[in-house]
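Why does residue order matter? Because the sequence determines the fold. Keep that principle in mind as you read this record.
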Amino acid sequence: MRIHITGVYGLIGNLVYTHLSQQPQRYDLYGSGRRRVSSQRADEQSITRLPDDHFAIADLSDAEAIASAIDGMDAVLHIGAVPDPSSSFDDVLSSNVRGTYNVLEACRLAGVKRLVYASSIMVNWGYFQFQEPYRAIREQRFADVPASIPMITHMDLPRPTEPYSASKVWAEALCRTYFDAHALSTICLRIGWVNKENHCFRPEVNSVWCGNRDIVDIFERALEATEERLFDICYALSESKYRWVDREHTYQRLGFMPQDKTDDVV
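Structure:
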């Protein structure tokens, strides 16, 4: 299977590339990015480099470059984006909104039928920021957290808090549009906090952490799931005592069970 990874030199993109590259008999991997150097979020010392003929310099806002990079692929893992919730609207508009449109349109033009989209837990951040008992978890008021936490599921309304998370909601909707209109089989992964240290050192967000081995596992499972014609949204998080988003749907759809647990690495 010929697979293209956008943002391949970013933190998550390169973790996924490194994982899938261990199975060359199954996956013929390509990638793109704005430049050949790793992002600041990634660990420069552990980056896996792509062969020159398998990498394309392509800014997500450049529709022609993206179309050229994706042409001939069987599947796309769209991981590239502006990842910072504090980013300006213009930056988000260029990379996350226009960029996602360019990727999906390139898939349509190239006849690609399989997509995994890197969404974010931030689409639900309003619950975590404003609504109890989720706010109590964020503020570490654990005495106020019930023994049975009501789970937010993929069926609950999104609740973004700034342009970055709103762009992820928009992109999920566009993925649904391309599935319905063009049969682009898609899994949107609402990804938790992934870091290069592979360690939860911020207690206020332990409940949404995702370990490195969990993120690469769920991407591979989502990729394989797109062999079936489907559109779905799944959460990508490791286990936590105070997890507040649903994991059952992800297990039913992808068979994913986290290997990492925040309580084990704090």
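Residues 2-265 form a domain with the Rossmann fold fold (CATH 3.40.50.720).
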